[in-house]
Design brief:
By secondary structure, this protein is of the alpha/beta class. Helix content is 36%, strand content 21%. It contains nine helices and 14 strands. The strands form three sheets. A six-stranded mixed beta sheet has the order 1-2-3-4-5-6. It has a six-stranded mixed beta sheet with strand order 7-8-9-10-13-14, with no helix packed on it. Helix 6 runs antiparallel to helix 7, helix 7 (224-248) packs across helix 9 and helix 8 crosses helix 9 (272-289). The radius of gyration is 18 Å and the shape is globular. The protein starts with 8 loop residues before the first strand and ends with a helix. Bound molecules: zinc ion (ZN). Residues 68, 70, 155-156, 174, 189 line the site of zinc ion.
Amino acid sequence: MREPSPPDINLIPNGAFGQEDYGATYLIEGEEFALVDPGTSDSVPRLLDWFKENSLSPSRLSSILLTHIHLDHVGATGGLVDELSDLKVYVHDRGAPHLVDPSDLLASVKDVTGTRFSEYGTLKPIPEDRVVSLDERSTINLGSRELVALPTPGHAPHHVAYKDLATGAVFTGDSAGLYLGEELIPTTTPPSFDLEKSLASLRKIAKLSPSVLLYSHFGPGPEPIKLLDEYELILREWVELISDLNRSYEEEELVNEVLNRKRDWLGNGFTEEELAMNVRGVQRYLSWKGN
Ligand SMILES: [Zn+2]
């Protein structure tokens, strides 16, 4: 059974890629409301329906907090900004320009996802005056509640984690892996995965003394330090495995070999295509590291 979320933090399954338990959006209820990672562009009606079903007015939403700008996290943002006139969008300063003009971002997603591009939906451009760039340790105020944003690069250079000061919960986005069916799985997708930065970010998250980790894929993870330590090991072993296989296999053969070895990771919304992308992200990292 999934751990319950901390008080006044609701998990809304956003239905990314047609999977029920793969994409998690969180609603934080302060005097004002904030959403963390609203999901793909297809999630907009689903999120608005959730408000209706729970007798809450979406007009109480003042902020969207983005952990990073991969389309399965950010896509719904443009649609929600269109619907809700006072909504501000918080994002790492390296991600901000891509929300205002998403053309390079969309081209990059097309490049790494190939034929699966349409499943990722799109991102409507967001007016510049709605976007708030986050610096080192920015604070977000929801009236009765505050969050701190902390850069956590590695999965992507524009990644941030958020700590809710009221509960100690930390929203990890993709910086601490996927947590699917209570199993940790590496998330090393292209184009910018960086092992050393990822490991440093895991230590940074641990220093926040989280009470619980709230994964964007999927749900609350209890025992945060244990999970962070475990993920460090999994990530190191994963990169080592690809690095070893890289010496004996050509690209497509290598992907097949990894699929054979890691078949037990599949399921809970984690597909062969996702696994193949994680392989390619590590290969790209190894090639620019000169390995
Ligand atoms: Zn991501």
